[in-house]
Automatic annotation (TrEMBL):
This is Dihydrolipoamide acetyltransferase component of pyruvate dehydrogenase complex. Residues 184-221 form the Peripheral subunit-binding (PSBD) domain. The lineage of its organism: Eukaryota, Viridiplantae, Streptophyta, Embryophyta, Tracheophyta. Residues 227-239 have a biased composition (Pro residues). One of its GO terms (biological process) is pyruvate decarboxylation to acetyl-CoA.
Amino acid sequence: MAASSSFLSTASLSNPKSTISFASSVSPAPIPSLRRVVFRSPSSHRRVMTVRSKIREIFMPALSSTMTEGKIVSWIKTEGEKLAKGESVVVVESDKADMDVETFYDGYLAAIVVGEGETAPVGAAIGLLAETEAEIEEAKNKAASKPSSSAVVPSPPPATSSPAPAIAQPSPAAAASDGPRKTVATPHAKKLAKQHKVDIGSVAGTGPFGRITASDVEAAAGIAPTVTPPPPPPPPAAAPTPTAKATTTSSPPLLPDASIVPFTAMQSAVSKNMIESLSVPTFRVGYPVNTDALDALYEKVKPKGVTMTALLAKAAGMALAQHPVVNASCKDGKSFSYNSNINVAVAVAINGGLITPVLQDADKLDLYLLSQKWKELVGKARNKQLQPHEYNSGTFTLSNLGMFGVDRFDAILPPGQGAIMAVGASKPTVVADKDGFFSVKNKMLVNVTADHRIVYGADLAAFLQTFAKIVENPDSLTL
């Protein structure tokens, strides 16, 4: 059976499940055009077949687990242009990146419902796909006659990797239109129908999806619907005193010439994650690390493209391999899991927000491959082209502000991770040895914020000691 059209015998039309070749591909609206095709078998029996055309809806996909709406960056195809299965149609901005959305079906981009720069919730229709060129005008009329269709939001599809196919979802009304209608009524409506001897099967429902309500049964029985009198208006409140007015002010007025700027999708996602992190009990531990040997190693490998971020991520990954509890995660507050991979996410500031590209298997990758991978991830992050698995699979986060001269800071723990490391700048520091002799050494202060439900003080102290030993004797980083 071809995906572009469905052939249905008249005997099978009573079964809604057999009326479509791919149930998820049918538009929620009734499909208007039908053609009758007559086939004659050798035994001269006559069979009547029906060819049903399709106008599919292109939905806003969920490109990440935190995405609730998406913004149309640009339409790659124009109205009336022919599309092939697997071809990218539109670029959508999620809360983390810009991603191409492709179609599962051949056809024509008949109508664009959500234009460039506009926002639509996950699951809303953003365009219409016609099966044949002859149906383009019909699809345009359909889009023009249903301006509020994008406001109906079905359950969002699961997050997928890019390119993310926008799969059309079936409508209960469309499925039911091909077979006998099942009577759906509220319990109170059934009780009234039995009480007044009304055939509930003959009552036309006015509720959601044709559901029969109590008022429908009363109307069928010729009974005036009961009208509940409106509640009396509340008594007027007493005029507040000047003191009460001063205490109930929710926010101070805007300053002159101030303006309100709404969050971007990325800023909204960051805000949501930061608020969520407040529910996690955390604690912080700081540790000074001697970086003389690491600085010397960096000068040797820098011409080969190795960055300080890659060196620190590699050192953190090797330390996490010896202390897996710091790499663990607790998501439900009742249990925690040891992650089998050490994926170090590194915070990167980009225009309009913050994102954390992930260096997967940071403890196992060669330092030079790790640096190359990091360069690729940063380039994708700057262009908002990261795939979901490249920014949401971190098990431990590293935030480095040392290149800005910041000597110390605390980082906020990302939801779903056990710890985050904040790295400050390496600065010359006067230190005294055990014999009382003074010298100047380069030191950096490392602060780690951890989830106290799974990581305890002794665990974090042991991890930091291991990290310091690796940094102070960095030969193992190049092995």
